[in-house]
Amino acid sequence: MTRYLQAAAVPDTRLRLFCFPYAGGGASTYAGWQRRLGSRVQVLPVQLPGRESRSGEPRFTDLGALVRDLDRELADELDFPHILLGHSMGALIAYALARHRAELGERLPEALVLSAYRAPHLPAPELARPDADDDELVHSLVGLGGIPQILLDHPDWLSALLPVARDDLLMCSGPGPSGKEPLPLPIQAYAGSDDNLVTPAEVAEWVEYSQCGFSMRTLPGGHFFLREQEDVFLNDLAHSLDTVVGLYH
Predict the structure, then answer these.
(1) Where is the Thioesterase domain (predicted)?
(2) Known catalytic residue at 140
(3) What is the pLDDT of residue 134?
(4) Which residues contact 16 (CB under 8 A, 6 or more apart)?
(5) Nearest-5° angle of CA 228, CA 93, CA 177?
């Protein structure tokens, strides 16, 4: 089993839904999604190094290096019909992995689901200054809703999160995916109506990156609307997945 998946993928005929986390997040972001989305897909949260169950491993700060490692490690799993989904930083990773595989002539996702991130030709969102101290970074994360109250109440947990968030933000601010030609796959995008980091108009720019159809939903909430409005988001995602599953079958 690959290090990136906490459980082995089941060799059945369902589409595989690989889920990539936001900056500072881990695979637990998607806990419970399998139960909520049912049998239409096999939910596979991706655990990046340096967090949660992989906290002792060095983190990536270069997007290209991470994508190459993901492609190597997940190659066998990505040879089956699949969808790549990511929220915020996870959207960037999902797109970069699809772009990388397109350049190598490897199997592409049936679709991309990209949430709360600007299209690649736009400047990367700047959550905090590169030299921001811990208090400034915490203030920025709290403002976005990216730090649950329980972390604020446990300084030791918070101190473990901040280095992860810093490295992830460094990766997001570095060189992005190469190539700008549209990919031969559909893109479903999501934005939060009150997101003060990434606007719906910026998310809508992903339309330029698909040859096969683009759709977008703007949902109530801020940058972490998928957590604030989980029921609304998952209900809409289930409907979108049903469309892809119908085309796949």
Answers:
(1) 16-234
(2) no
(3) 77
(4) 9, 41, 42, 44, 77, 80, 81, 82, 83
(5) 135
Both tokens of 234, joined, read 């998952």
Active-site residue (options: 88, 115, 140, 210): 88
15-244, superfamily in CATH?
Answer: Alpha/Beta hydrolase fold, catalytic domain (3.40.50.1820)
Structural domain boundaries in the chain: 15-244
The per-residue pLDDT for 28 is 92
Give this prediction's pTM. 0.93
Q: Identify the segments of the chain with pLDDT beneath 70.
A: 1, 128-130, 142-154, 245-249
- 56 token code pair: 């002792």
Rg (CA), the chain: 17
Percentage of the chain beyond pLDDT 70 is: 90
DSSP of the chain? --TTBSSPPP-SSSEEEEEEPPTT--GGGGTTHHHHHGGGEEEEEB--TTSGGGTTSPPP--HHHHHHHHHHHTHHHHTSSEEEEEETHHHHHHHHHHHHHHHHTPPPPSEEEEES---TTSPPP-SS-TT--HHHHHHHHHHHT-S-HHHHT-HHHHHHHHHHHHHHHHHHHS---S--SPBSS-EEEEEETT-SSS-HHHHHGGGGGBSS-EEEEEESSSTTHHHHTHHHHHHHHHHHHHHHHHHH-
